[in-house]
Amino acid sequence: MSTINIGIPEDQRRAIADGLSRLLADTYTLYLTTHNFHWNVTGPMFNTLHLMFEGQYTELALAVDLVAERIRALGYPAPGTYSAYAKLTSIKEPDGVPSASDMIRQLVAGQETVVRTARSIFPVVDEAHDEPTADLLTQRMQIHEKNAWMLRSLLEN
């Protein structure tokens, strides 16, 4: 591969790619969990949750591509296996099929985990003046914060 000269030193590109790899793993794990819950949700809110989960997992499916492509643009391979994601993710897989309300709680926690992971990458991104990654992180945080809010609102009495 030819030398990458985009104005970000290799050590910073590596640190950013490592952070984005954790974000990719969290995003993919949340995608898989959301898709699982879409298939398996039951109860009086079935239709509402089934449709909401579908919208969220569809958005997540597109997001993993954006994150992986940014890692590649920085010159590093994007992780793409279950075993790699299992090592990198901060999101715990669900056990069995939880109740609808527990699904919502777990998805809120997952959305918030992705936000924290994205936020944790900002120091090195800011230091490197990596505006494309900062823009990607900001967009991801906005989406996940909104999704967490919408899911939390379903738990209020």
Automatic annotation (TrEMBL):
<dbReference type="GO" id="GO:0016722">
    <property type="term" value="F:oxidoreductase activity, acting on metal ions"/>
</dbReference>
<dbReference type="InterPro" id="IPR009078">
    <property type="entry name" value="Ferritin-like_SF"/>
</dbReference>
<protein>
    <submittedName>
        <fullName>Ferritin protein</fullName>
    </submittedName>
</protein>
<dbReference type="Pfam" id="PF00210">
    <property type="entry name" value="Ferritin"/>
</dbReference>
<dbReference type="InterPro" id="IPR023188">
    <property type="entry name" value="DPS_DNA-bd_CS"/>
</dbReference>
<dbReference type="InterPro" id="IPR002177">
    <property type="entry name" value="DPS_DNA-bd"/>
</dbReference>
<feature type="domain" description="Ferritin/DPS">
    <location>
        <begin position="18"/>
        <end position="157"/>
    </location>
</feature>
<dbReference type="InterPro" id="IPR008331">
    <property type="entry name" value="Ferritin_DPS_dom"/>
</dbReference>
<comment type="similarity">
    <text>Belongs to the Dps family.</text>
</comment>
<dbReference type="GO" id="GO:0008199">
    <property type="term" value="F:ferric iron binding"/>
</dbReference>
<dbReference type="InterPro" id="IPR012347">
    <property type="entry name" value="Ferritin-like"/>
</dbReference>
